[in-house]
Amino acid sequence: MKKKFFWRVFLITVTTLLSIIFFLPSTPLFSSMPELWKKYMPHRGITLGLDLQGGLHLVFEVEGDRAVDITLERIAVSLTDILQKKGFKVDVKKDITGISVSPSDMNIRKVIEDNYPNLILSQSSGEKVIYKLSDKETWRIKDSSAEQALEIIRNRIDQFGVAEPTMHRQGKDEIVVQLPGVRDPKRAIDIIGKTAILEFKLLDDENPIAAQLPNTILPGEEERLIKEFAHKIPEDDEILFEKVVEKETGKISKRVYLVKRQTLLTGDYLTESRVNIDPRFNEPYVSISFNAEGAKLFGEITGANVRKRLAIILDNNVYSAPVIQERIAGGNAQITGLFTMDEAKDLAIVLRSGSLPAPLKMIQNVTVGPSLGRDSIEAGKVAAIIAFIAVVGFMIFYYRLSGVIADLALLLNIILLLGAMASLNATLTMPGIAGIILAIGMAVDSNVLMFERIREELRAGKTVSAAVDSGYKKAFWTIFDSHVTALITALVLFQFGTGPIKGFAVTLSLGVSINLFTALIGTKTAFDIILSRMKVKSLSI
């Protein structure tokens, strides 16, 4: 008999010790543990979710239509280059309806359709043809932009250093971001939402209109200035601005530039961006490096435009516009702009993670304060303690000594559940606490089923030992079936749920699995030990 339950006792003891070891980092005791323990033992524990430790809950909408427009703009630039290299004199523009190409020529149309089979001819006249993207390609771009935006946001947040962030798509074009423990919400939002489209464009200083523009304006006057010069500016130019901060007074103004619309180089060729300190002025700047193809293009651009000014533009804001003194080989450049160290670091992060395929529009911004999280934790603790005391009291009152065994199994259940969550570094949320409380109820339910079966066997005249064995055997499949169905439900919730629902599913699935162990092995082992060591004639049940 002893050999039968020795391994069960050993298994219960080992799992309990491991659970305590894994859960220790989640308790105040861990800070007073020896350094050797902290170094070699688990030190992560349970992570608190957004609703318990505070943080940000954001919902962004990916502007898919803008992603389609950006794709068309790039196709227009590429087509211009392809057609010019084949000797055609063409005017390729991206307009509201699609890409217009003039003149209308069959040879030109053949080159376009060979290179871009996803373009469909929508209009044709003697002067020009207009192409648009196919519906299938439009849908693919929108879907791809949402997926790509999710990945880029994930990369940015990983570099920002947020512990246990949650990110997922919601619907066709929405992205949900949860950032527990964030202390600077504005900075986090700026990093996530910055489109980070890096472009290099030439200034059109030779155009007479450039001399008519004011050097600087006050913030807020940008739209008025653009409207004032809208009829004068050539179609191939645009007005952009650079933020200027006076060191002595801190006064902010906007420097005005007339910039050619054609993008000579984009940030798609970047391989590295990092923060350095300018030794002359002791100010941070961002240095960038291009891949081999980008370095070649940058060398060609700078070599062909010596003595001209090249604007470095991020999200339609000019950061600097230095004069090209000579051809720049090696594929390295600098972005300056009177940055603070945090601004330079954030800019390096967004450039390193890549530009978003389309702008993000924030549709929900909820900040959860840490005090609210503490209140939730305290409320959860109180609910769990009350539930535990009520269940323990009922089991002892109704089942006497057997109720005490069930209560010990319940305590073991909680210890193993917390240990399992800590070992998986699971995120505990308020719904997760609800899942723990539900698991406590299910643990007691299993014991009630077994105890009632044992009572029936005792009434039938069986001995205590035979009644216990028979009661467990007969209750086994009922308990197993109920737990498996609950586990399937929890797994479905985890697979298709989001955020708090996943937290509830994690604790419920772990609780159900552990409950099978404590109810069918834990309490049975306790009964076997008692019955093997004592001559029990009647069972207190």
Description:
This protein has 541 residues and is an alpha+beta fold. The chain folds into three domains: 2-51 and 371-533, Multidrug efflux transporter AcrB transmembrane fold (Up-down Bundle), CATH 1.20.1640; 64-138; 194-367, Gyrase A, domain 2 (2-Layer Sandwich), CATH 3.30.1360.200. The chain has 15 helices and 20 strands. The strands form six sheets. A four-stranded antiparallel β-sheet has the order 7-8-2-19. α6 crosses α11. It starts with a helix and ends in an 8-residue tail after the last helix.
Principal-axes geometry comes out as elongated
Give the class from helix and strand content and strand pairing.
alpha+beta
Integer count of domains: 3
Q: Mind telling me which CATH architecture of the largest domain this is?
A: Up-down Bundle
Q: Could you tell me how far the N terminus lies from the C terminus, measured between alpha carbons in angstroms?
A: 23 Å
Write a brief caption for the model:
The protein is α+β, with helices and mostly antiparallel strands and 541 residues long. Helices cover 53% and strands 20% of the residues.
Features:
4-stranded antiparallel beta sheet; 20% strand; 20 strands; 53% helix; Multidrug efflux transporter AcrB transmembrane fold; alpha+beta
What topology emerges from the helices and strands here?
Blueprint: H1 2-23, H2 35-40, E1 47-48, H3 50-53, E2 55-62, H4 64-85, E3 91-94, E4 99-102, H5 106-115, E5 119-124, E6 129-133, H6 135-160, E7 166-170, E8 174-180, H7 185-193, E9 198-202, H8 208-212, E10 216-217, H9 222-228, E11 237-245, E12 252-260, E13 265-266, E14 270-278, E15 283-290, H10 292-304, E16 310-314, E17 317-320, E18 332-335, H11 341-353, E19 360-368, H12 370-423, E20 427-428, H13 430-459, H14 464-496, H15 500-533
Parallel strand pairs: 1-20
Antiparallel strand pairs: 2-8, 2-19, 3-4, 4-6, 5-6, 7-8, 9-13, 9-16, 10-12, 11-12, 14-15, 15-18, 16-17
Helix pairs in contact: 1-12, 1-15, 4-6, 6-7, 6-11, 12-13, 12-15, 13-14, 13-15, 14-15
